[in-house]
Design brief:
- The chain is of the alpha+beta class.
- About 25% of the residues lie in helices and about 40% in strands.
- Strand 5 and strand 6 form a beta hairpin.
- Helix 1 crosses helix 2.
């Protein structure tokens, strides 16, 4: 079973910054924690990150919902330069509420010079049909709010010209 949520906005920066910032900047500056979701502290084994088939192991801080440490594996499923990213988060090492994987998508489209439309979508895949109503509610409320938080962090990094740590 799956649940999908999508948000959209406009960034006032170059197409390249709007496209590359969410995936190639320091992930700990994007996923800074929100509610019960702990902040990302760092990643390892990320030499291939940013390219289709690339991956990285994600580590998160300790909080009330997580003991801290390795949390998941991110994989790049698709990259179409200056247009589209698709990633998958799986192999959870933390409580996953019955989710088996998340797939995130980031779409960019230039509307005018330094005016970029952003569409940010997540599809959450549930393991258990009995948990699907809870998973659906979580996706539409909690995860949607978390996505806005991450999107605003990406916007800030794009506007500041934050350095890319991946290619």
């Amino acid at each position: 079973m799956k649940s999908t949520v999508e948000i959209s906005t406009t960034f006032r920066c170059s197409l390249e910054r709007a496209f590359k910032t969410p995936m190639l900047c320091d992930v700990s500056k994007i996923h800074t924690g929100y509610g019960l979701t702990p902040r990302v502290t760092h990643c390892l084994d990320d030499e291939t990150w940013g390219q289709p088939g690339g991956s990285r192991r994600i580590f998160m801080a300790k909080n009330i919902a997580f003991k801290g440490g390795e949390s998941s594996l991110d994989r790049v499923l698709a990259r179409i330069e200056n247009e589209y990213w698709k990633i998958e988060i799986s192999d959870f090492k933390m409580p996953s509420m019955g989710f088996e994987k998340f797939q995130g998508e980031w779409f960019t489209r230039q509307l005018a010079e330094n005016e970029i439309e952003i569409r940010y979508r997540y599809t959450m895949y549930s393991r258990y049909a009995l948990l699907h109503p809870f998973n659906w509610l979580f996706t539409k409320t909690v995860w949607r709010s978390y996505m806005w938080h991450a999107l605003e962090n990406v916007r800030k990094l794009a506007m500041e010209g934050a350095p890319y740590v991946h290619k």
